[in-house]
Design a protein that fits this description.
about 40% helix, 3-stranded antiparallel beta sheet, alpha/beta, about 375 residues, binds pyridoxal-5'-phosphate, 11 helices, 7-stranded mixed beta sheet
Length: about 375
């Protein structure tokens, strides 16, 4: 059996009719930037998240960046970010001109550890940017309490967490604002690059709308030096076709996760993901940890099972952030995750039979070590 890490063609097979008609609608409209599809998607996704505003943007990195810009965060400021995240979270802070200040994760949930946040706050701190990593919301209540005490903005990086719940509240509605990515492999994925921000803050929404479109509210009148980061009509139409299926597709991910959690529970040397009871993850990625990570990955590959590593080099040890001068060992929990984490096949189009095969191959590997 061959089990790819993720089958990006399967969504089209399932939704061919909806996606083809979305394509046709846009082609026949002859309107490709900032039109009816974007506007409708913004209403539909805001309603899905239970917030007032959604603003469609070019991608998830731009979404984070424009939120920071719209708050006026920039040179001389600091933003607290997870040490353990995809580098985009840090890059958005750097683009704004502010400095990312990393904080270690809780080793069980992989997400920002709220009890370490306060020690990282300085007079320059303007915001905390928790990431709902691997599809699991960060522990938001203590983060929001600290933010209130120090008058900081809380910006959720919800790029991996569409539809996930924290104490019954949806990701995207937990902080002052949130950014989403619709990169094709995300839980809600476009057929190209796309992103959005969501918020209840009217002023922030207005500023981001202006910044995404050359700093202009009225065509050819420019109030600020803006950017070009617009969600296009075609991607918005595809996202509208897929949004009604998001919850069902997340349910399928949960069934695969439940299968893995059940069938791999008793393997010594294999650490499974942990979700606190008040959290409903949407399993963007299913990460296991083992000191034999590289050997296990090779073994699975030889058995036709595709896996990935999220992420092999943490941002603080990336060449891109050499300027910050963090030595190896600066963030040991993050570094351990980077050297022992392996992401198993996961997605709404993975069958239980395929998950069973993956599970059996992992058991076979551990029976020999
Ligand atoms: C994917 C991702 C982003 C960036 O989204 P793009 O659409 O690829 O720009 C940001 N943060 C996290 C945690 C992500 O996984």
């Amino acid at each position: 059996m061959k089990v790819p890490f993720l089958d990006l063609n399967a969504p089209y097979k399932e939704l061919k009719q909806e996606l083809d008609s979305a394509y046709q609608r846009v082609m026949e409209s002859g309107w490709f930037i900032m039109g009816a599809e974007v506007e409708s998607f913004e209403h539909e996704f805001a309603a899905y998240c239970g917030v007032k505003h959604c603003i469609g943007l070019g991608n998830g990195l731009e979404a984070l960046h424009l939120i920071l810009r719209a708050y006026g965060i920039g040179a001389g400021d600091e933003v607290i970010v997870p040490a353990n995240t995809y580098i985009a979270t840090w890059l958005a802070v750097s683009y704004s001109g502010a400095v990312p200040i990393p904080v270690e994760p809780d080793p069980r949930t992989y997400n920002l550890n709220p009890s370490l946040v306060e020690a990282a706050i300085t007079p320059k701190t303007k915001a905390i940017m928790p990431v709902h990593l691997y599809g699991q919301p960060a522990d938001m209540d203590p983060i929001l309490q600290i933010a209130e005490k120090y008058n900081l903005k809380v910006i959720e990086d919800a790029a991996q967490a569409h539809g996930s719940l924290y104490k019954g509240r949806l990701s995207g509605s937990l902080g002052h604002s949130a950014s989403f990515s619709f990169y094709p492999g995300k839980n809600l994925g476009a057929l190209g690059d796309a992103g959005a921000i969501v918020t209840n803050d009217d002023e922030l929404a207005e500023n981001v709308r202006m910044l995404r479109n050359y700093g202009s509210k009225v065509k050819y009148f420019h109030d600020v030096k803006g950017f070009n980061s617009r969600l296009d009509e075609m991607q918005a139409a595809f996202l509208r076709a897929k949004l009604p299926h998001l919850d069902e597709w997340n349910e399928r991910r949960k069934r695969i996760a439940a299968y893995y959690l059940d069938h791999l529970a008793d393997l010594p040397g294999l650490t499974l993901p942990y979700a606190p009871a008040e959290i409903t993850p949407v399993w963007h990625i299913f990460v296991v940890q083992t000191p034999h990570r590289d050997a296990l990955q090779q073994f699975l590959k030889s058995k036709g099972v595709g896996t990935l590593i999220h992420y092999p080099v943490p941002p603080h040890l990336s060449k891109a952030y050499a300027e910050l001068g963090f030595p190896k060992g600066a963030f040991p929990i993050t570094e351990t995750i980077a050297s022992s984490a392996l992401s198993l096949p996961m997605g709404p189009h993975l069958s239980i039979e395929e998950a069973e095969y993956v599970g059996n191959m992992i058991r076979e590997y551990f029976s020999q070590v």
